[in-house]
Each structure stands twice: as structure tokens, then as C-alpha cells.
Inverse folding.
């Protein structure tokens, strides 16, 4: 399998970025190759296209499947497993956010709650900072939960409003403050 220059640059960049995102370089490259492929690829095609070992390809595909970022496909008349990525970019984004939340945010929130409930006492400053951090993460995860429930079209519309929403909040906060003073 020969990659075009565009594909090769994208795949190499994704491999480099993968290590910054906490995944193996080869895993990032496998994902990038599948993302750009117009048809599902089997492990042999991936191995050949990236010039990596078959075992690296297998391990990378397993990791991507664990993240729900690749889909197993069967090609009629072929017994090999083929892989592809979701077509919808918003679905991919939602998967990534959900998986990062599950793997990084949720355990941290659990630990913060545990420290507040059963941790050593006597360090008022540390206790206050832990409580403050837990409250902020709970606020953010609550917002995430609300956004996760929105249909993609409504979420995109909300995101495109961006600073207009902030302006509206500023205006309503000012109106609230004025009515409170009276």
C-alpha cells in the first residue's frame, strides 16, 4: 500500500501528536491511516502502509478498539478482519471526550471525594483546595453531561454562537445585579 504525500504527512504528524496525547506513536499513525482511508483496511494493509511490525499493528488496533475509535468490518468473501473509523467527526470527538473523561477525570473526581471523606485532617489549606478542585471538576462534568445529551446540530449551533452566549450572560448578569439592588 503506497501512501500519497498528503497521507504520509498526516500520518506522521498524528504519530508525533499521539505521544503528546498519551498514546503510542504507532497507535496514532494507525488511527490516522484508517481515518484517511476511503475503505476499511486489514492488518496486513496497515502494516504494509506504515512499515511497522505486525505485532505493533495488532496491539495498536486492540488499543484503538478499547477506545472505541475503530470499528471492525467484514468484507464479503474475505475471512480477514477489516477496520475503519467512524465517518462522523462529531461522533469521533464525543468518543474521545467520553473516553478521556472515563480514564482521567472520573478517577480523579473519585479520589478527591475519597480524600474529602476519609483523608487525613488538619491541613485546612489543602482541604479547602481539594474541595475547590472537586467542585470545579463536578461543575465541568455536569456541563459535559448536559452537552453530551444535545443532538449534534444543537451542539454545533451553540458552539458557533460562542462569544454571543458570553455577551448574553454578561447582559443578564447585569440585569440581575440591577434588580437585586432595588
Amino acid at each position: 500500500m503506497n501512501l500519497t504525500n498528503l497521507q504520509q504527512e498526516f500520518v506522521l504528524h498524528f504519530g508525533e501528536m499521539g505521544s503528546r496525547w498519551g498514546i503510542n506513536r504507532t497507535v496514532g499513525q494507525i488511527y490516522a491511516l484508517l481515518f484517511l482511508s476511503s475503505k476499511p483496511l486489514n492488518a496486513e494493509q496497515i502494516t504494509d502502509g506504515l512499515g511497522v511490525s505486525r505485532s505493533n499493528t495488532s496491539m495498536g488496533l486492540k488499543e484503538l478498539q478499547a477506545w472505541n475509535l475503530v470499528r471492525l468490518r467484514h468484507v464479503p468473501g474475505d475471512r480477514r478482519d477489516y477496520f475503519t473509523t467512524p465517518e462522523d467527526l462529531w461522533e469521533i470527538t464525543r468518543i474521545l471526550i467520553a473516553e478521556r473523561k472515563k480514564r482521567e477525570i472520573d478517577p480523579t473526581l473519585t479520589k478527591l471525594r475519597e480524600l474529602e471523606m476519609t483523608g487525613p485532617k488538619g491541613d485546612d489549606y489543602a482541604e479547602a483546595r481539594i474541595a475547590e478542585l472537586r467542585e470545579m471538576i463536578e461543575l465541568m462534568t455536569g456541563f459535559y453531561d448536559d452537552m453530551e445529551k444535545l443532538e449534534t446540530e444543537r451542539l454545533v449551533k451553540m458552539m458557533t454562537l460562542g462569544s454571543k452566549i458570553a455577551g448574553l450572560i454578561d447582559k443578564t448578569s447585569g440585569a440581575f445585579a440591577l434588580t437585586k439592588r432595588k
About this structure: The chain has two domains: 5-84, 89-158. The CA atoms of residues 167 and 173 lie 10 Å apart.
